[in-house]
Structure formats: C-alpha cells, structure tokens
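#random but structural
TW: two for the price of one
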Amino acid sequence: MTHIVLAGDSVFDNGVYVPGQPDVVRQLRAALPAGAQASLVALDGAVVRDVPRQIATLPADTTHLVISAGGNDALSQEWMLGRPSRLVSDSLDLFADLRGAFRQDYVAMLDAALAQGVPVTACAIYDPRFPDADRQRRAVTALAFFNDIILRECFLRGIALLDLRLICSEAGDFANPIEPSAQGGEKIAAAIAAMALERSTRGARVVTGRS
C-alpha cells in the first residue's frame, strides 16, 4: 500500500501560512486513492542539513520519500546580492564557493535519502514572488545556481524531480513571497500523487505540472 512521506521545509509544512485551508499533506491525502497514506516530517525553516535527521526513522511502511529543501539555504545567503563587487568575476567566485558548499550538503542529504531504500523524489526550488522587481530579478537569477546543483545531482542518481518553478507558476500559488498557498499546495500535491502512482519507469524524470 502506498505511503508517501514528505520531508524538508515549509513548502510541505505550510499549515501556518494557509489558516483555515488545507496544507500540502492534507491535500496530498485527498489526491491519493483510498487506502494510500501520506505523512509529514518536513519542518518550517529547515535547511538541507536538517533533512537527514528528519528521515532517520521513517515509518516502516514508507513506499515513497519526497523532499523539498534548499530554499532556506538560498534565503540565508541573500545578503550576498547586496555585497559590493569590483568585477563580475569577483561575484562569480563568491557564487562558486557557495555552490560548492551547497553541493556538499545536498549530496550528503541525497545519499541519506537513498540509504532509506525507498524511491526518492526531490524538488527544484520555485521562484519567489517578491513585490520589489529588482529583488525578484536578482533572486530568480541567484536561485539558478542552487537549482543547477539539485538537477545535476538528482539526474546523476536517477532521482525523480518535481520542478516547482513550473508547477507553482502563478501569483495565486503563493501565500506570501516564499510560501505556497492552498492553490499552490494543491498543485504540488497533485504532482506528488502523479509521480508516486505513475513511477513505474526507471531513471529520473521531471514533472512540470503541465499536460
């Protein structure tokens, strides 16, 4: 019987941001067929390094593990976007160092996830919805450095990928600039359900939320 466990950050643990409306795990339960289960170990505010602890003791009947992590790691480094730089190459050197550190943490997380012995699905970091146009443009550009690591490392390991940039693509998908709304959560839940129920082929695949 299908039992999907959601790990990571507030992309899944979004209940506080959608008061009076269903959070992602409740929406996932509604999207699954009768008898299937969904559990939440994700925690608002978590970073990539927190995920191995979340999944250390998965329920014994877990059949699928889905992880959304990395957004808070990126947010913690947003200060770099305002740092003065003499040359473009200086800025690229900073991002290269940041990518290296993030890759180390993300690889360790994926290895811990694969060690659980169940199919793993990871999520790309969606684009935020900052009202300030300059901040939004810079954030989307900078996130590409993080998402490149996520995509590369998932494909190298044959891990399925949900590209949340394409799934949560409308303003209404967000409760605030960085958290999913009930509308966005419904889209995420539908993509997870489809991935879990249709994952009969081998290798990594990308779900965009588009038909």
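TW: number two ↓
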Amino acid sequence: MHRTLLATALLVGTTGAAVAQTAPAAAQTGYSAGDFVVRLAASYISPLTPSSHIDVIGGKVDVTDGAQPEVDISYFVTDHISVQLIATATRHEISAKNTALAGAPYNLGSKLDLASTYVLPPAITAQYHFFPHSVFSPYVGLGIDFLFPFDTQENTATLGGTQIVQKVGLSNAVGPVLDIGLDYNVSGPWFFNVDYKQIFNQVTARVHTALGLVKARVALDPSVFSVGIAYRF
C-alpha cells in the first residue's frame, strides 16, 4: 500500500515537472528594453508655412502637401524610452502668390509657379512610452529633423520667349521635432500605430528669373501624420 502511494506520488511529481518544462511562456504584451520595432506607414505631410518673405517682388511662398510611404525603426533603450529613426521622401510644388509681377506690365497672375521638389526629412526622436506593457501604449517624443530638398524641377513657363524661372536652389534645414502617438498591440509582435509629428524649420530659396535673382525665406514647419503597422523583434 505504502509502495503504491509512493509510486503514485513520484509519477504525479514527474508528470507535473514535465508539464512545467514544456508549457509555453506567456506571450509578451507591448514593449520591453532591447526590443527593435520596424514600422511601415502611410504619411501625409502638410507644410504650414506660417511666415515667408520674398525679396524685391514681395508676396508669399506657398508649398503644397504631400503623401508618401514611410519606414522607421525604433530601439527600446529601457521599457519606457525608445529612440526612433524615420525616413521618407515627399514631392511638393512651390509657388509665389500675390507678387509685384501679378499686374502690369508682366501680368503673371496672382500665383507664380516656381518649381517642384522632393524633400527627404530624416528625423531622430526620443520617445517616452507611458504604459509600455499594455495593449494601448501612448507616447510623446522630442527630437531633431534634417531636411534635404533634391531633384528640384523649375517651372518651364515663358515670358517673351524666355523661361521665367531659370533655376531654383533650396537650402537644407535643421529643426526640432515634437511627437505624440499611440501603439495598439493587435496580436503577438504586431502593432497598429498612429503618430503625429510637428517639425519646425526654415528654408531659403534662391530663384534665378528672367528678371534677375530673387531670394525667398519660408518657415516651412511641416506637420506629419502617419498611420501604419509595426513588427516587434
């Protein structure tokens, strides 16, 4: 009898240990220190252009909105703090409105198209995640943005047989970034993300025209709204 009880106890103990060893670990919710996160998003970039100045001919610089895919990567230094690098490129149309060239004798109208350009605005942002281990994880961030215009194409409109805008040169810019967003842990390592960044920078343009050199300065200050999916490694 005692031997039977002892054998039963040993069998139960051995079986319990085996089950404990083979039981799968609980799935991680949210983020932890050491995690890498890659995100693919659709981004809409809207330059606010709160102020601008155009030498000689006056008026205001206007820059159109743009939409493009965005890829970013984040690394969690601690459970709460991550560092993010984003990269995308957007195309924008640049024009001058209500300049002195609108009326006689030039009669170029209230809007003078200057050029189109692509802008590469890589940004590095440090983010603080309030509830990193929760399904819903809001965060705020602060960082720096580097703006690089490229592949600028001048408007080919002519005046008296001469191209009005002959060359446009745009400066690079550096400015601070404010960031706010929310991650939702959909399942396992997959996340849904909504993010808003406000960038502050100023760009200088040198516009060579048929009438001479015109310089313009514009506070571009683009707003970047992104929606995407992310994967945690």
